[in-house]
Amino acid sequence: MRNRLLFVLAVIGVLAGLVAAYLLGRTPHALPPAFAPASSPYETAIYANGIIESEQSGGSNIVIYPQVSGPVTQVLVHEGQVITRDMPLVAIDDAVPRANVELAQANLRTAQDQYTKRLASYRLDPKSISKDTLDTAKNATTQAQAALKAANASLAQYVIKAPVDGVILAINTTAGSYVSSQGAYDTYIQQFSPLVVMSAEQTHLAVRCYVDEILIARLPAPEHIRAQMLIHGSDIKVPLEFVRVQPYVSPKIQLSNQRQEKVDLRVLPVLFRFEKKDLPMVYPGQLVDVFIGQK
Predict the structure, then answer these.
(1) Strand 166-171's sheet: what is its strand order?
(2) pLDDT band at 277; cut points 50, 70, 90
(3) What is the pTM of this model?
(4) 46-55+200-294 CATH pick, 2.40.30.170, 3.30.2010.10, 2.60.40.3600, 3.30.70.1400
């Protein structure tokens, strides 16, 4: 009985070994890629990393900082909202500047009253007061008017308005947060960020490409440049229209890492543009692959 049990166990062990050897020895079939890898559409081309940004004559996006400090009382827009020029975006507590406006208005009324009384007296009897006293009262009224104008200008700074037509990309504050001329403090990156980031109108977007310094000599002449971008994580390829070269070679910034980190490599920014209407899932700040060829 014991020998039979040992024989059965040995057979089971051999079978288990054979099954394990079969399973471990199989070559698994590779899964097809989710999307085709980046490849050049041209016979010869220059590859460059690119980042999508709003299209405008200079800079990348519009960053808005307050000129005053204080707690935020209202955020009047939301991210993704299409806005028009001079539209209120954020309101900051204005109790003190509003009180200054009321004080300036009271001072103006007092100065105007004093001037009116002195002018009336002077008209009744020019000898009742001196011309110098009348001029002083008039100057006091002018100063009070200027003080009120300055107080109103200071009050207006407590409502942040849109400088141009565009789209809200990011709001880095909320009601109750304290902001200053440095912007809003971000607890995640432990640095100050702009209060609001917005883009120009998004009928077209720009692509800023960074061409390696050793490839600059191979760039075609501006009138012969053509380019195509490939959006990461998809098979979408978009033809690009050349806009301009930013004629300043600078150290490359690691776009996917901290913005302060630089590497010992210099790049030349080249800007292109494309129409956004057929690309609803493309956003400023997105990284893309760009191939630059020659017509």
Answers:
(1) 62-64, 196-199, 166-171, 82-83
(2) confident
(3) 0.73
(4) 2.40.30.170
